[in-house]
Amino acid sequence: MNSMSVAMASFFLLDSTLSADQKTVVATKGIEWLKWASVAPFIWLSVGSIAFFAFLAVASWSGSRAAERMAYYKNEMLRKVAESPESGAAVLEYLREQQRDAARKRRDGMQLGGLITAATGIGIMIFLKAMVHIHPVYLVGLIPLLIGLALFGYAHFLMREPSANGNSVRQISA
Question: Are 116 and 144 in contact (CB under 8 A)?
């Protein structure tokens, strides 16, 4: 029971103009209100979580519809270009360029992810070294640091990138 509810119920119960039956009704309604007051945060959380996940579902659906529409228009454009007599080589070159761009974006994303993970590991190490002086707990930061370095190294040195003819070749960095 919170103090506000008790104060309101006692105010109405001390009112001399109310009959005994009316005081009983006020006391009963106060108890019912207190029961609902203890349940209200859970109702609010459940409604909020339902609304959040409904929003995620609609956002996901609209994103997939946009991607589907984009793929449809791209395929229609490629079909029309391919039907023209002299543009077969241009369509193949366009598709190869799209594939190279996707591979480059994937490679750059992995490099960026590796750098962010490594920086997180360094930050964890610095934070833990400053907070805990007795035990070498800061060495836990080596886990994300080494994972980040492995991601960056793979993306930078070992990841295959499509060549001009569409085959995957290993890129050698100097």
Answer: no
Q: How far is CA 167 from CA 4, 28, 59, 104, 157, in A?
A: 75, 80, 37, 14, 18
- Cα–Cα distance measured from residue 121 to residue 119, given in angstroms and rounded to the nearest whole number: 5
CB 128 within 8 A of CB 138: yes
Rg (CA), the chain: 33
More confident residue, 21 or 102: 102
Secondary structure element (H or E) that encloses residue 160, with its range: strand 160-162
Map residue 166 onto helix, strand or coil. Answer: coil
Q: Are 121 and 148 in contact (CB under 8 A)?
A: yes
Q: What are the residue ranges spanned by the domains of the chain?
A: 1-83, 99-174
Tell me, what's the pLDDT at 142? 95
Give buried/exposed letters for 62-95 (b at 16+ CB in 10 A, else e).
eeeeeeeeeeeeeeeeeeeeeeeeeeeeebeeee
Q: How confident is the model over 44-88, as pLDDT tens digits?
A: 889 999 999 999 999 999 999 988 998 898 888 878 777 777 766
> In the structure, what pLDDT confidence band is assigned to residue 20 with cuts at 50, 70 and 90?
low
